[in-house]
Amino acid sequence: ASSMWPIVLAILLGVFVGLPLLLLFEILFLLFCGIRWLPPLSCMLNSSPLTGTFDRSKVPPHPAVPAHLLSKVEVVEYRGIKWLRAVGSVAEQVKTMCDIMLSYNTVSTTYENPEDLQGVFWMDGNRIPEELACLSYADSSDDPDGQFLLNKVNSVMSWTYLDSSFGKFIAWFQEKDETAGMQVFRFKSRQALDGRIWSCKTFNYKDINWLTSLGEWTMERLPGPGVNFKRGCYWFNRACGRRAEFGSYTLRKIMHTDGAPVQPAYDAFVEYMSGTNRGLSLLMEADQASALRGAANGDPPSAAPAGGQGE
């Protein structure tokens, strides 16, 4: 019987040490090389239930951001990319970033989407230093099963980060490639109560990115006041269901399409930036051509290194 212990120990080490290490290496291969067929990870990856291609031309071109809003930001450079950083008091910075996102991303199709899925949202509790997202640059449709789809075209000036060292790295990592593809929010109906997010590298619904492959990312409506969703993050859902939950946060709407604050979330975000993130600003990728022209002309203010105010 004692001779069995080495075998049992080897099996336990393989399960609790070897398998996680193997999965880690396979995830890295997936991230950097796009390799999806290596077992056992290949058995855990999601595929999109959606078919076909979204017609990108349905969403009109971005409007120009008014000069009076651009005068309230500075253009900063980090790793060869131009970013916008608001200036002024914390309350002024928050309002400026929200106003610019809405100005750049609000188009005719925005108003055809459910009001609760328009505007600017705060990623409250997100462990990654991403703060605000604008869902307005989108078009809605129905899939063959009759479920509602919000097709949000990826764009600059729609996602903000903290200008801390970690925040700038995450911003660069996520924005370093040419902006492409879309996020697809799939709900049972236009009431948008319980949905799932699929991130696509192109406008082909099947072409989901590596992160979407690894888990189930949900939009679960929460009670008010205001508009709130649980942004569930359930890893390896094909193997674990919803038991491996990590990184979930609350998505809170803080500004309507018309620029009206959504309370109490808006004031809570200003307080959060004043307290938890005291000394830090919000950063978002600029339209590179416009930023370069603006920097050359001296408007917006001045190009500067992307060091946070608290650094």
UniProtKB/TrEMBL annotation:
Establish whether keyword Transmembrane helix is in the entry.
Answer: yes
Question: Which residues span the membrane?
Answer: 7-38
The alphabetical list of record keywords is:
Membrane, Transmembrane, Transmembrane helix
Question: What is the name listed in the Swiss-Prot or TrEMBL entry for this protein?
Answer: Uncharacterized protein
Highest classification ranks of the organism: Eukaryota, Sar, Alveolata, Dinophyceae, Peridiniales
